[in-house]
Specification:
Strand order of the largest sheet: 4-3-1-2-6-5-7-8
Largest sheet: 8 strands, mixed
Helix content: 25-40%
Shape: globular
Number of helices: 8
């Protein structure tokens, strides 16, 4: 088994450890997405719960990676939160910040949903243990900074939290301290389930009308994640292996 296959297999196990939270989202199209900024560490057990909530609420966010030994967004985080704790969510529209998984997730569901926080997203012993298991399975990828070159403009990543292939890319973006706009293409109906080429539907695949998936399909002819756009170079890529190679070639100093 080659390294890429092993990498994907362990990412699938990590999603399984979290019972594939961060896969399905509300079928209701969101008229307007709030401008949210999340200081995040991909392998952090609390950050994972927040990203799952974002996926399930079909919310996008500007991600500022803050890995261990990271310096690029240290001062930004301290100026907004007064500490170096992640996860930290900042809402530029209200100039309010929210620290820690419980506070952030409660805010998200109270503000953008009509339902209570699901039990698996509540920060208890079981949810923390399951999130920790996912980090261990991935060998602490997406936790510690590695030498990198900065990007002038944030990248854009189309993803959803439980996607095994997208996780590989988010881990590397964190390690390289590359800010990016996270656009969640969460699944919203039975027809969305399954790989991009083997969905659980009969006939032509049709995303929900008015959804981000529908807009993506019209633009690209398929709905597949991860998909990365880099405005600094004009590069746009499908496939995690190609994206990782690009990120390493363009931004890694390791």
């Amino acid at each position: 088994m080659n390294p890429q296959t092993l990498d994907v297999a362990s990412s699938i196990l990590a999603s399984t450890a979290r019972l594939w939270r961060g896969t399905m989202a509300s079928p209701r199209p969101r008229a307007e997405n709030p401008e949210l900024q999340l200081f995040d560490r991909e392998g952090c057990i609390e950050c994972r719960l927040v990203r799952e909530a974002l996926s399930e609420l079909n919310l996008d966010a500007q991600i500022f990676p803050f890995p261990l030994r990271g310096q690029r967004y240290l001062e930004d985080l301290k100026s907004r939160s007064g500490s170096t704790r992640v996860p930290f969510l900042f809402n530029p529209q209200t100039s309010k910040g929210y620290a820690g998984a419980s506070e952030i997730i409660n805010f998200l569901f109270e503000t953008y949903s009509r339902r209570d926080v699901p039990l698996p997203l509540r920060e208890g012993l079981i949810s923390r243990w399951m999130s920790h298991a996912a980090t261990v399975i991935r060998g602490n990828r997406g936790v510690t900074a590695s030498p990198s070159r900065p990007a002038d403009k944030p990248l854009t990543l189309y993803s959803f939290e439980s996607s095994p292939y997208s996780r590989l890319v988010r881990e590397r973006l964190t390690e390289l301290e590359l800010a990016y706009t996270l656009i969640n293409l969460s699944k919203q109906q039975i027809a969305d389930l399954g790989p991009a080429t083997q969905r659980l539907h009969v006939g032509k695949y049709e995303p929900l009308p008015g959804s981000k998936r529908e807009a993506f399909l019209r633009k690209h002819g398929r709905v597949q994640v991860p998909y990365l756009e880099d405005p600094n170079t004009g590069v746009a890529l499908f496939e995690s292996a190609r994206i990782l190679q690009y990120l390493n070639d363009q931004y890694s100093r390791g």
